[in-house]
């Protein structure tokens, strides 16, 4: 008698997208669609922290200027829960990346309008390497 075992499905990487602009969410989802990630959407910082506490993500994509709790505070709180989870900020901010890294613990800053190639490079480096 022969037994065949199926390999367990590869666990999908989870990305928490924190963005209050529907158009930006749509653009990020479209860029990430080919990768088959599990996407969780939060529309403000408070929602992001609550969702991150419940369902840890492998990566957080964060806007800084959000209602209820901004991305600055949300990033700090997420890093206090999991220092190892990378946070990519996509924002129009003029604050230097080094300052954001030091003050709120983010890992990378991408300026809007989004450079899609650079964004994809970060995704590959952080989740697919």
UniProtKB/TrEMBL annotation:
Keyword annotations of the record: Phosphoprotein
Coiled-coil residue windows: none
Pfam assignment, any one: Response_reg
Keyword hit for Hydrolase: no
CDD domains according to UniProt: REC_hyHK_CKI1_RcsC-like
Residues covered by the Response regulatory domain: 14-127
UniProt-listed GO biological process terms: phosphorelay signal transduction system
Protein name, as recorded: Response regulator
